[in-house]
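Appendix B. Raw example, untouched.
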Amino acid sequence: MDTIILTINCGSSSIKYRIYNWTKKESLAAGVVERVTIGGSFCVHEVPERDKVTIKRECPTHKEGIKLVMDTLVHPEYGVIDDLSGISAVGHRVVHGGEKFAKSVLITPEVMNTFKELIDLAPLHNPPNILGIEASVELLSDVPHMAIMDTAWHQTMPKHAYIYALPYEWYEKYGIRRYGFHGTSFLYVAKRAAVLLGKDPFECNFIICHIGNGVSINAVKNGISYDTSMGFTPLEGLVMGTRAGDHDAAIDFYIIDKEGKTTKEIYDVLNKKSGILGITGKYTDRRDVQKAAEQGDKRCELAIDIEAYRIKKYIGAYAAALGRVDAVVFTAGVGEMSSIIRGKSLDGLELFGIKYDKEKNEIAKTRNAECDISASDSKVKVFIVPTDEERVFVEDVVALLEGQYEEHTNFTYRFQAKEYTNTLRDLAFEKECQEKPELSEVKKTPPKK
């Protein structure tokens, strides 16, 4: 019987999924349920060599969203398995594991209780993660469920990088420290960037920029996480879609006094009404921001400049922290698709040996291929590596099933192979190149050894 792995990644209003046949090494389907809990819900379902399918169905909670995913997978017309009993195991993204989890883990009632205890550390993310797990376990109660921890990758950070200059007893009593997030994405991208360089991953220093609605940068030293911009929660660091990132904490107390807001109200503003939305007053999607900026919206122009400036500062800081940088790597939706954010973030970094090709940067707008936008004389490579967290989920789940799982420092992923390919992305990239042939010029292939 084939080993079929389902991966679930629950956000506050979305559910990403992938179903993978590990035995035959092929993706069966991938998709996303959008607008969960907010009305107008729909699922976009993609199967290799078939047209995408959009299924509209209201999902007032994540339970209905998970049910829509399951129904889609077994649908007689566009499904890919006969029934749910064909699924061997399920892997779930969990954003915050505190110091409790240094690697992926089998989900048990005790593990779930720990996740619930940590909700306050990631209030936007852990609740939907937990709801997705509970709904999936209810529908697939006879198969093992595994948690892939977003914070696990960063457990290698040295103490001087993760301890805050706050009363030390806060760390001892409450675990207040830098944890970092987007770990699964950083793991995948770091391993793939090493492949593109043709080097042992543990001989590589990278600055990886994960720029999406959530944004963080990771300094990778000798193949492991050394420092990262997000902190105790996903609120610290860069400018994000709705999150404030770095700012003077005294501002929060000042506004509490001036406007009589509660701490909960301020926390809500910092997480949900700040960042790009706070600056522009109306947008979080960078495509909307860029379009409005091109039409003369000054606050949108300002938002782009602020975001790129903050990214540039972190790249410079991490270049100093690492001492040697082999590559700067962009990933996630904005990092993969926004040439303007990449360009403004990289301009003026020649001091660090970082130079990019402006023409290649404009061409490289794809989520389906690894690209090289380095200038020919750049001492530091500049790559774009589309992230694939779900692939990490799949491999961790299989390794747990087989009793072979280890922390990434003692484990080799299949996607680290030079010949590794992603069928869904390869097919999509071929179609993109038919409309935009110049894309093939920036695609990066691993060097021959």
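End of appendix B.
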